[in-house]
Amino acid sequence: GAVVSQHPSRVICKSGTSVKIECRSLDFQATTMFWYRQFPKQSLMLMATSNEGSKATYEQGVEKDKFLINHASLTLSTLTVTSAHPEDSSFYICSAGTGANQPQHFGDGTRLSIL
Amino acid sequence: AQKITQTQPGMFVQEKEAVTLDCTYDTSDPSYGLFWYKQPSSGEMIFLIYQGSYDQQNATEGRYSLNFQKARKSANLVISASQLGDSAMYFCAMREGVNYGQNFVFGPGTRLSVLP
To answer: Is the pLDDT of residue A45 over 80?
Structure first.
């Protein structure tokens, strides 16, 4: 089955640090990937749609300068949280699809903790 | 307006019994897909079952079945013979249209606790 790998799984860093999260499709090509944020005990909130070779599409209220997305190849999308602050602490998870009637395949997520 | 509604924030079920998790949706697109995911405490999203809007029969995958009532716009998940490992958050999701580049909309989730 389709596999999406997300790295790192856990990050703890100081306020002001920029953090890069990678999302890779291991056995399929993904022209589109999605980045979600999840607060404790809440549902997944779509942050942005990552498009290979073009700019990402951000959801309303998501700061594109804070959450930089790069989708330079058909198998890799990255999310960089720039100058992270404690309020950016959350669970970030990516996904990609393989077909019209197929589920989104998710990475295992990244728990980001900003001290 | 919420596109996906899950009215049960939490559910309890006795081990080996069946449980139904509710999901209602709202769309005007005739083509859509409905998905259920399980999220254990470790965080990963595990795909369980899919139902297409044009599918005539209810989807089944092992112990999971989807009670699809199109006129009522409901897509309830039925888990038979519950196991302790079924304790997790369960999310209902919808994709509108047939473009797999279209994002999913997730419901608020239901936390299922299986009691020994």
So the answer is: yes
